[in-house]
Design brief:
about 180 residues, mainly alpha, 8 helices, about 0% strand, flat
């Protein structure tokens, strides 16, 4: 009985919700997210692909933009986490397709779970990495056709472009310092 009381008492929380971000933070976050996603899109289009056919702009980059431009002090927004989390997760996702491609539910579930384990073990947790692994599985024939090239492009190159923008934009603000650490 005591276990259950303790268990359910954890669900009450215990802290207060943080205050909204000041306007200067909203401004720099918005500018960074816009430029980061725009550049990934634009560079993807240098290959003359239509947006709906572009494999370069994957959904997990939207979540990365929220982290690296919106909460740049988060440990999950730092360069090793951004780059490493996406790369590790992409490798895991492609491997799961390669081994379990005929069982998509199992491949998708295992890709996200193993990506999380791999990010833990490499100390590169980046929550959007879970989506990167999942996209490798459920992204369709065009993504599957890339095989392990998916790791380099769109994932590696796209994350690198977003990192460069984060370095440039976040440090324009007198209230920000990015990154907090490199290694």
């Amino acid at each position: 009985m005591k276990f259950l009381l303790n268990y359910f008492s954890k669900m009450r929380g215990g802290k207060h919700r943080p205050h909204p971000a000041p306007y200067h933070e909203v401004f720099w976050s918005t500018i960074g997210a816009f430029i980061g996603i725009y550049l990934v899109y634009y560079i993807g289009h240098l290959h003359e692909l239509r947006l709906e056919d572009s494999l370069f702009l994957i959904g997990s980059f939207g979540a990365s933009a929220i982290l690296i431009y919106g909460v740049p002090n988060s440990p999950y927004a730092q360069p090793p986490n951004l780059i490493g989390g996406h790369i590790v997760s992409a490798i895991v996702g492609v491997a799961c397709v390669w081994v379990l491609g005929d069982q998509p539910a199992l491949a998708a579930s295992l890709a996200v779970a193993l990506a999380l384990a791999a990010m833990h073990l490499t100390n590169t947790i980046h929550p959007p990495g879970g989506a990167t692994a999942l996209i490798a599985v459920v992204g369709g024939d065009q993504i599957h056709a890339l095989g392990f090239w998916y790791v380099l492009s769109p994932v590696g190159l796209g994350a690198f472009i977003m990192l460069i923008v984060a370095l440039l934009i976040n440090n324009l603000s007198p209230h920000r310092r990015y990154p907090q650490f490199w290694f």
